[in-house]
Amino acid sequence: MSGRVNLRRIVTTPVVGPYIAFAVVQSLVLGGCATEVIQLDSTATTVESPAESAAVELSSATLAELTVVLRDEVALLGRAVFDGERDEARLHLERIDLAWEFAEPLIVAQYGELAVQITYDLRRVLELARSAVERNRPADADKATAFLRLALQSLDA
Fold it and tell me: pLDDT per residue over 130-151, tens digit each?
């Protein structure tokens, strides 16, 4: 017997061969499920009319009005992501972020200790909406819509 190992014989044995084949297939399948993060260079542009007018409009809104804006914009964002309208989805995301900017302090002022959990839940909705737009994930937009509905119910309770 020589010191050489016959690799072909080991791989083709009925016990080892299927395990190797399974490992190769599994690595190919799982490698395809990896999330790819693409960072785009953001260029600063000054567009005054829509963003500024929305900010002025939302700055004087009540919490009830802001929650309606959040609800409507999250629903519209979901449709835009589903339809592949990325620019439209980004506009809805900007409006959601702006409405949240004004709603968060109102929630904290109105709900005291409960505000911690409510704002946590709403931030989760915002992250799902952001993920839906940035990663083109319609499922995240659907989750944002469902979680927002639940979070807004806690505001009414």
Answer: 999 999 999 999 999 999 999 8
Q: Tell me whether residue 29 is in a domain.
A: no
Which pairs with CB-CB distance under 8 Å and at least 24 residues apart come from 73-78? 73/99, 74/125, 74/129, 74/141, 74/144, 74/145, 74/148, 75/145, 77/129, 77/132, 77/133, 77/141, 77/144, 78/132, 78/138, 78/141, 78/142, 78/144, 78/145
The parent domain of residue 89 ranges over 61-156
What global pTM score does this model have?
0.63
In this prediction, residue 4 has a pLDDT band, given cuts at 50, 70 and 90, of: confident
Structurally, the chain folds into a number of domains equal to 1
* Vertex 79 angle, CA 86 and 66, to 5°: 95
Residue 72 lies in a domain: yes
Q: What is the CATH number of the domain that holds 106?
A: 1.20.120
